[in-house]
Amino acid sequence: MAETLETMRARFGALTAKIRSYQEALGVLHWDLRTGAPPRAVSTRSETIGMLSAECLRLSVSEEMGELLAFFEQPDVWPLLHEVERASIRECRREYDRNRRIPPETYRAFVALTAEAESVWEEAKKASDFKVFLPYLRKIVNYLREFAEIWGYREHPYDALLQPYEPGMTVARLDRIFGALRPKLAELVRAVAASGKNPDPSALKGHFPVERQKELNRRLLCDLGYDFEAGRLDESAHPFAIGLGPGDVRITTRYSEDDLTVGLFGTIHECGHALYEQYLPAGLYGTPLWDGASMGVHESQSRLWENMIGRSRAFWDRYLPVLREYFPEPFGRISTETFYRAVNAARPSLIRTEADELTYNLHIIVRYEIEKSLFDGRISADDLPTVWNDLYADLLGVRPGNDAEGVLQDVHWAGGSFGYFPSYALGNVYAAQLLEAMRKTVDVDGCVADGRFEAIRGWLHERVWRYGKQFDPEDLIEKATGSPANPDALLAYLQNKYGELYGL
Amino acid sequence: MAETLETMRARFGALTAKIRSYQEALGVLHWDLRTGAPPRAVSTRSETIGMLSAECLRLSVSEEMGELLAFFEQPDVWPLLHEVERASIRECRREYDRNRRIPPETYRAFVALTAEAESVWEEAKKASDFKVFLPYLRKIVNYLREFAEIWGYREHPYDALLQPYEPGMTVARLDRIFGALRPKLAELVRAVAASGKNPDPSALKGHFPVERQKELNRRLLCDLGYDFEAGRLDESAHPFAIGLGPGDVRITTRYSEDDLTVGLFGTIHECGHALYEQYLPAGLYGTPLWDGASMGVHESQSRLWENMIGRSRAFWDRYLPVLREYFPEPFGRISTETFYRAVNAARPSLIRTEADELTYNLHIIVRYEIEKSLFDGRISADDLPTVWNDLYADLLGVRPGNDAEGVLQDVHWAGGSFGYFPSYALGNVYAAQLLEAMRKTVDVDGCVADGRFEAIRGWLHERVWRYGKQFDPEDLIEKATGSPANPDALLAYLQNKYGELYGL
Questions:
Q1: Quick check: A47 and B246 CB within 8 A?
Q2: How would CATH label the architecture of A171-501?
Q3: Domain boundaries along the sequence of chain A
Q4: What mean pLDDT do residues B281-309 have?
Q5: A245 in reach of chain B (CB within 8 A)
Q6: Inter-chain CB pairs, A–B, below 8 Å
Q7: What is the pLDDT of residues B65-106, one digit of tens each?
Q8: Rounded distance, CA A161 to CA A151, Å?
Q9: Which residues of A touch B48 (CB under 8 A)?
Q10: What are the strands of the beta sheet with B241-245, ordered from one edge?
């Protein structure tokens, strides 16, 4: 047995390493496409990406994978495995089942549909006409309903769609979490709007040459602990962080010469993602555990660094003088308090990606309610514009004037990514829980004010980063904070911060 | 039969397209490693490159490839194929035979040896101590002697090593070509040295900020016909061009702020390679024919553009005024004639990569003589420093003072690339033949002086670029110029150019 076990371990390790190598190559290809590949590269590159993705998928559902998983899962073998091995096997089993149950023909048709739907969505958004996109959306929802049945769920079909993004999460859990957030956040947003206090947006206006911004961002990234020996900073239309390997976690940002905060907070946000990946244990590389625990946990890191640290008073006590070195104009004549208030302006708006820290979660709750209702049949794709607009009016007090600034604003649905949105708000929930727990042993504001970010990194590494994808997100958060996903910390954080900012 | 033929064609097309997709992905990974991947990326990226290369190799020697080739090569099938299909099959057959005959274990050992040898070579070069590298070189030569026997040859073992770089080329042919060049070039080099005329090197001295050089190089590339919609210009320690696909052919260069010509001629050189690839028929993509005809033909394009066009009087009549726009200092006070003479200074030197157009070929002949003699057993690896130094003294009249500036200067042998060097000089031979043939119908100097490069591109496209790898290099050159590889045109070109420059 011992000998067989060693052989099977070696085969499993080789197989997962090969899958990871394909993912690494695909990662480089995606990064390249988004950071400066020539426009005409796209057509052959897409074919290459398709081929490599298919090979990678083939391995994850191969006979060999099935045989290895069945071997390890035997009652007399399982107890012999280490905890980390079991987590790897669990992840591979999930992928195997998820991908193998869908007939390949069906999956290919779905992928082709979403590829086409993304172009149609672009046109529809340009024309601000939901009807153009509707036939595609109907088909995508039908496919995903079918997939949900194939994948299986206990209570709600949407549960099946949540799993790839947030393993273990359910509608029941989300209803409890978002149900608690929704009224309190809506109330807080109304109070802020009613306060009549509007920070002066002109405080941040100026001219900020890109090259100088790059220098500033590099300086900040170094301070926060991002390792340029194992990463690089580039530009892309939509900023992202991508972990290609333990020695290669890249960040992109985008610059506006009129508005420093676009590039600055974009960079800090991606830095949060990147720190997580740079601190993943290199020993997990080549297994499915060299990854964040979930989309939500990943987002908790970016939000914690961007908003809870990067938009804190302590941070700007320290960094406004640095900003003044780089841009004496306009920052030489602005107080920390003015700056702090300006970067924390909260106001109900229509576009999720431009939303502030406070109102953002309501944008997500709108999408969650819609996705959930689409999959339990309470609404159909046809109802979306009306439902969307009513929810915005109800939760945020604003009503989209057209489809482009309403239901057509996000690409996710065109790409078939139903189940993804909740992770964004869960990220905020987790981040607030982590911050609250961290404060029990770390003087967070003091560390930020002194630039001792290593204490913050140390805490996050100890509780989150070093586990990779070993635990399901709520288990990880419970281990780190004493509680599974719980909206109280986020509510308290927002009420405290915005209450003080807006004199509520 | 017709139906089977169509099926087999489709299978063959799918297989070669898959191989090409792997090569495209590998190309992006290599480009990325050389243009700015983080230092710590190297270890996992190397594993990924190893995995993808192995998959690609596996396909090229697969049972399926064997079956397809055997089918197409049947006497009743072959006549039904188009000329282009036959050329594809010929290329796949060559790869199949070459790679399948080496036992996989032996090949892996050889690859591991060369990987190690490259690091050892670096140390040896740093220490300027050939003895450190010698044990590795001995082993590499032994492997390649074994491979040559396995691959087979008609007359000379070295013939087998030439094939991957220059299909159809033999020692017999090279002896004739280089045998004619060697005495005449050595004589011309001696005459130039004896002329006592030395162009003033200070004419090119100045301070050239990199950003400004980049703008100049982009301008030049656009003028020469390089398509930035299907390419990009980056920096790397060793400049290169890489064709990733019909819509993506990239160039790198390197800049010296003291010496404009490093980046400038580096860029024009790589532009020659890149034009060839950008003009390959997109219809050949996914077949082995989407490639240059050989290393030598590829080099003929870079040399033609860099030296025969880029270092011509006509070119600088047109472009010195442009240089003056970008760098009034020092070029505002230099005449075209002074500039032309400065960029064509010829002087025997020790380092191949720094050699001028005239002496360069003698550096190659030194290496050719050594490689040939190593494989017919007239010399052994142990003899290299002595043989090297004597050949330099004999051909170039200079003798290396140590191993670093002598036998250890090139990485090729450490990487196992024996058979590669002759292509560099063949590139010059082919380029001169092409130029001579082109002059019969195109007013080359007039076109260059007027910036009508499209006439030159048109001629090259018609005779060379549009065929891709359809013909073996000497067949292609014969079709284009009326003669297979023939050193007369190069000799006449060099005697004419340097005779005039040095008043011989």
A1: no
A2: Orthogonal Bundle (1.10)
A3: 2-123, 171-501
A4: 98
A5: yes
A6: 109
A7: 999 999 999 999 999 999 999 999 999 999 999 999 999 899
A8: 9
A9: 21, 24-25
A10: B233-235, B248-253, B241-245
Chain centroid, CA A315 distance in Å: 23
CA distance B273 to B265: 13
Please give the model's pTM, rounded to 2 decimal places: 0.95
What are residue B249's DSSP bridge partners? B243
Banded model confidence at residue A1, pLDDT cuts 50, 70, 90:
low
Contact between B28 and A28 using a beta-carbon 8 Å cutoff: yes
The ipTM of this complex is 0.94
A122: tokens are 């672009």
- Please, which pLDDT band fits residue A202 given cuts at 50, 70 and 90? confident
Choose the catalytic residue: B91, B95, B270, B299. B270
Would you tell me the crossing angle of helices A83-101 and A63-72 to the nearest 10 degrees? 140
Q: How far apart are the first and last CA of chain A?
A: 68
Residue (of A288, A280, A292) closest to A20 by Cα position: A288
- In whole angstroms, give the CA distance from residue B20 to residue B15: 9
pLDDT in tens, A178-193: 999 999 999 999 999 9
Q: Whose CA is closest to B268, among B234, B221, B314? A: B221
| Contact (CB, 8 A) for A53 and A26 | yes
Cα–Cα dist A419/A422, whole Å? 7
Please check whether residue A101 is in contact with residue A150, taking contact to mean a CB–CB distance below 8 angstroms.
yes
Question: SS3 of A235, please?
Answer: strand
CB A411 within 8 A of CB A278: no
Task: Report yes or no: A80 and A273 within 8 Å, Cβ to Cβ.
Answer: no
Residue with token string 């031979």: B429
Under an 8 A CB cutoff, do A48 and B18 touch? Answer: no
Q: Provide, for chain A, the percentages of residues in helix, strand and coil under a 3-state DSSP scheme, each rounded to the nearest 5.
A: 70, 5, 30
Cis peptide leading into residue A330 (ω within 30°): yes
**How far apart (Å, rounded) are the C-alpha atoms in residues A341 and A498?**
10
Provide the shortest C-alpha distance from residue B98 to chain A (in Å). Answer: 26
B393 residue type, one letter: A
Q: Is the dihedral of CA B81, B86, B88, B94 positive or negative?
A: positive
Q: Which residues of B touch A29 (CB under 8 A)?
A: 25, 28
Question: Above 80 in pLDDT, residue B117?
Answer: yes
Residue of chain A whose alpha carbon sits nearest to that of B243: A41
Structure tokens at A339: 């700056």
Tokens at residue A292, please? 């964040």
* pLDDT tops 70 at residue B398: yes
CA–CA gap between residue B437 and residue B304 (Å, rounded): 13
Helix, strand, coil percent values for chain B (each to nearest 5) = 70, 5, 30
Q: How many angstroms separate the CA atoms of A36 and B32, rounded?
A: 12
Residue A138 burial (CB count, 10 A): 13
Contact A410, A418 (CB under 8 A): no
| B371 in active site | no
- Phi/psi region, residue A132 (left: phi>0; alpha: psi -120 to 50; beta: rest), is alpha
The first and second tokens of residue B271, run together, are 């532009």
Tokens of B37: 């991947």
Q: Give the CA dihedral B127, B130, B136, B140, nearest 10 degrees.
A: 130
- C-beta neighbour count of B254 within 10 angstroms: 14
The distance of A30 to chain B (nearest Cα, Å) reads 11
Q: With CB atoms and an 8 Å threshold, state whether A41 touches B285.
A: no
Q: What is the DSSP letter of A420?
A: -
Residues of chain B neighbouring A39 (CB-CB closer than 8 A): 229-230, 247
Q: How far apart are CA B265 and CA A444, in angstroms?
A: 55
Select the residue of B37, B42, B232 nearest A38 (Cβ to Cβ): B232
Residue A370 near residue A123, CB atoms below 8 Å:
no
Q: Is the dihedral of CA B120, B121, B125, B131 positive or negative?
A: positive
Task: Match 């591991």 to its residue by tokens.
Answer: B112
